[in-house]
Amino acid sequence: MITMKDIVREGHPALTKVSQEVDIPLSHEDKALLEEMIQFLKNSQNEEVAAKYNLRAGVGIAAPQLGINKKLMAIHFEDENGKLYSYGLANPKIVSHSVGKAYLAGGEGCLSVDRQVEGYVPRHARITLKATDMDNNPVNLRLKGYPSIVFQHEVDHLNGIMFYDHINKDDPFEVPDNARPIE
Ligand SMILES: Cc1nc(NNC(=O)[C@H](CC2CCCC2)CN(O)CO)c(F)c(N2CCN3CCOC[C@@H]3C2)n1
Ligand code: NI
Question: Which of 24, 29, 34, 77 is deepest in the core (most CB within 10 A)?
């Protein structure tokens, strides 16, 4: 099972590399990795398991965080309406996005960053994302709000971008015009 010791931390070169696309259909190895990544997220959201294995809670994880520079990412969370987002995705691509921006009012963190980094992380408010899922089916997702932010955080990892790269250095809490806070 994946635990925190498997997650590389900032300074590790895998986190700032652009990862490679994977072959479709997925190899058994890549599919198994996506399954393990989803299981990690479920474990991290389960109080008993997270306490037992000392897991930090996560709603998404990307393969570079495991030192693997492949375009593989996993997402597992329920939105405020209880809609479940649970995906193991290969070769995700943001094919279109809104002009408008959005940001998490509480800022962002990262399982690969062992420190608090203050500030708003401006992202696209709405995205259309294309990818291939674990069963080799094409996925076409239109996302807004909290889900849109989570998916963008993970896609960034596949391009070697960390959340703090988006924070305004001079004024971390500067709100870009036409940006909307997500509580
Ligand atoms: C927002 C949030 N970020 C948590 N952690 N950080 C992460 O997931 C990083 C990715 C997120 C950081 C900002 C956007 C994406 C991991 N990353 O670095 C991957 O690249 C959470 F854990 C969390 N939730 C809310 C839902 N809750 C359900 C019940 O279980 C606890 C869980 C806690 N919300
Ligand atoms: Ni992260």
Answer: 34
> Is there a domain that residue 14 lies in?
yes
- On whether residue 61 sits in a domain, the answer given is yes
The C-alpha atoms of residue 86 and residue 8 are separated, in whole angstroms, by 23
Per the structure, the count of domains in the chain is 1
Token reading at 157:
């990892």
Question: Residue 137 falls within a domain, yes or no?
Answer: yes
Parent domain of 134 = 4-172
Residue 174: active-site member: no
Structure tokens at 85: 């987002």
Residue 177's pLDDT is 87
**Which whole-number Å values give the CA distances from 154 to 12, 53, 79, 110, in the listed order?**
17, 23, 17, 10
What is the rounded end-to-end Cα distance, in angstroms, of the chain?
32
Q: What is the spatial distance between Cα 71 and Cα 83, in angstroms, rounded to a whole number?
A: 25
Q: Report pTM.
A: 0.98
Neighbouring residues of the ion ligand 2, judged by CB less than 5 Å = 110
Please give the mean pLDDT across all residues of the chain.
98
Measure the CA–CA gap between 161 and 156, rounded to whole angstroms: 5
Q: Which helix (H) or strand (E) holds 40?
A: helix 28-44
Q: Which of 42, 59, 115, 149 to mutate to test the pocket of ligand 1 (most atoms within 8 A of CB)?
A: 59
